[in-house]
Design brief:
- The protein has one domain: Response regulator (Rossmann fold).
- Helix content is 36%, strand content 22%.
- The protein contains 3 helices and 5 strands, in the order βαββαβαβ.
- α2 packs parallel to α3.
């Protein structure tokens, strides 16, 4: 069982992740906007949503505390600069939210 953290993930994307994680018997913890990184001590993966500015701060704090923790940044922008900023801040993977990116 893996501890999955959803931080600032919009409802539709969170529902899809919850469905997949629950089916595999993973524990899912949701936080609305931010988190004390100490709460991630037993995390197996983090999904982070929110604005690019909020994500950069969050991703940086997570990466400094847990350099090897997989972090998926869920972005709602097609602006490549935001993708690169998220990767620079500490995201392991970028996923686009909304429309076709969520399975429509």
């Amino acid at each position: 069982m893996t501890n999955v953290f959803l931080i600032g993930v919009e409802q539709r994307a969170a529902a899809e992740i919850l469905n997949a994680a629950s089916g595999a018997h993973h524990a899912v913890f949701e936080r609305p906007h931010s988190i004390d990184t100490q709460e991630l001590s037993d995390a197996g993966i983090v999904f982070a949503g929110g604005s690019a500015q909020v994500q950069q701060s969050l991703l940086g704090r997570i990466r400094r505390s847990y350099p090897t923790l997989p972090v998926v940044a869920i972005l709602d922008t097609f602006y490549v600069g935001d993708w690169l900023d998220a990767l620079d801040a500490g995201a392991t993977v970028i996923v686009l939210s909304g429309g076709d990116a969520c399975g429509d």
